[in-house]
Amino acid sequence: MQWTDDGIVLARQRHGEHAAVVSLLTREHGRHAGLVRGAMGRRLRGVIEPGNEVSAEWRARLTEHLGHYRIELKTAHAAATFGAPLRLLALVSAAALTERTLAEHEPHPALFAAFQALLRALDESAEWPAVYARFELGLLAELGYGLDLETCAVSGATAGLAYVSPRTGRAVTRDRAGGYEERLLPLPAFLADGRGGAAANEPLIDIRNGLRLTGHFLEQRVFAPHARKMPSARERLIEGLARADTISGIG
Amino acid sequence: MAVDDLQRLIELLARLPGLGPRSARRVALALLKRKDVLMLPLARALEETALRVHPCSICGNLDTAEPCAICRDAARDDSQLCVVEDISDLWALDRAGGFRGRYHVLGGTLSALDGVGPEELRIDQLLRRVAEGQVKEVVIATGATVAGETTAHYLTDRLAGSGVQVSRLAQGVPIGGDLDYLDDGTLNAALKARRPY
Description:
The structure holds 2 protein chains of 2 kinds. Chain A has 7 helices and 8 strands; from the N terminus they run E-E-E-H-E-E-H-H-H-E-E-E-H-H-H. Chain A is an alpha+beta fold. Chain A has 2 domains: 2-79, CATH 2.40.50.140; 82-249, de novo design (two linked rop proteins) (Up-down Bundle). Chain A has a 5-stranded antiparallel β-sheet with strand order 3-2-1-4-5. Chain A has a 3-stranded antiparallel β-sheet with strand order 7-6-8, covered by helices on one side. Chain B is of the alpha/beta class. Chain B has 2 domains: 3-52, Helicase, Ruva Protein, domain 3 (Orthogonal Bundle); 75-168, Dna Topoisomerase Vi A Subunit, Chain: A, domain 2 (3-Layer(aba) Sandwich), CATH 3.40.1360. In chain B, strand 5 (137-140), helix 7 (146-159) and strand 6 (165-168) form a beta-alpha-beta unit. In chain B, helix 1 (3-14) packs across helix 2. Chain B starts with a helix and ends in a 5-residue tail after the last helix.
């Protein structure tokens, strides 16, 4: 068995003195691990860092074997986030969420594209908090827990959506929330209107609400049923965003 | 020596860094050929080191004395504290001779995937040392990796409000390094950290 694919480094587990088991999110082969000889050596140590985009060649006798990777760096995203604490936490959180939740060997090309978009945003865009929230929303969808944020669960309306039911994950308009506002999760406009991008000047409260929304469903549907905890990097990201005064102050 | 004993020695040696079963056999034979001048002194040194060397309760360095020689050294600058991931990093920095302050060994880095949280590292001890009031600058010398950088940011957050200056080791072109051979991440870090010249 042999294939070549683009990948994003999710995790590296040291194996012996010089090798490591490296987990990648690949474009066509999903989350896939492999042994990398020399991974802890001078040439590859900086390459195999979470968030870096690589070109990977995987070989094994059978598909169910761990196999060996040969890895070459394409884009070093990890180092680009080093000076910005919250961007770095977002990168680590995205890698940890993907590594912990995605089944192995199942292709998720949409999630791969969303992760790439997040990495580009983390490199150079002030829009990254909104792109990160969209990434988590996409992850939920890929895991089979997609939220219905396009139509009101009560009226069927597509405009004026303002809340999400914490139980069903379906959107509700402000008019139909009818006294249940406190029990519902606020739906920020940048997640409700279905636009592809997200403006850099999204109100900080909307970013917090977006992550509160995705965090609720990740916790309730993905982590809690398996008695597992959310990645600590995500918790620290939320704390960091809670401390920020303005969206431009996030960095 | 029974064959079993020799085999056990080889197996133990093979567990050491840099040694596999083949090189462990060569080491075992070399030791046996020089029993009096090498093997027995080595055995005694191993036993004595195992019994006498302990982590320093202040900085986490290894030494036979408590506190360690670095913590006892009155000539060192108490106002500077360098935080490192591991003892090997402490030894590397001290060997370089450019830092004459005190050290603090964290014992690793924060890792979301490996489940290493702040409570697994010697962070509370660091905060207590800083709270004693002598430290004016904390130099964070964790690795230039995602885990090292995440830990550095976490420490900076925890030290905010303590009144100490927090600094970080520079990242960029190594001495004797050709730009052509540097990876993109290092080159970009060097460009970001450029300074007037």
